[in-house]
Target: Acetylxylan esterase
Amino acid sequence: AGVGLASAFAQAWSIDHPNEYIGLIPCAEGGSAISEWQPGSVLMRHALSEARFAQETSEIIGILWHQGESDCNHDLYQVYQSQLKNVIAHVRKELDLPHVLFIIVGLDHLTHAEGFSRTLTQHAEINHILQTMPQQVPDTYFVTSKGLTMNPDGIHFNAQSLRRFGLRYY
Model:
């Protein structure tokens, strides 16, 4: 789409906090499974390294979590909940931020998906786990992706939906 949800999120935050600065720490890895984010993994070590560097001069107040599509097959949903809880607990412990907000996005946009996303046959199970995480883990919040439009590839959101998505995260 050529745009990301981060700019819409940052712009909305900046309007509400005109005397403060916002910094975003991009650590996403497209197509990654939750197993690739477990403690000790390359992705987790990299994310924690970037976050610790930011903590030298800044305060981390939240984490935007958009992951799960790669776990929508092969019964991976059966371990997804425990692995996501493990990720949240590990990040909070390692950064000494026991109450940092985790804003988790759902996969409800896949209900009527086309293209590649049609192969993600267990998206409803993963989405249910994501949706119920706030009832199980304190300081987590769920953001729906319902009503957002995918590009024809069935993998990525279109530009307008990415902007709307960023506002939903906020």
About this structure: The mean pLDDT is 90.
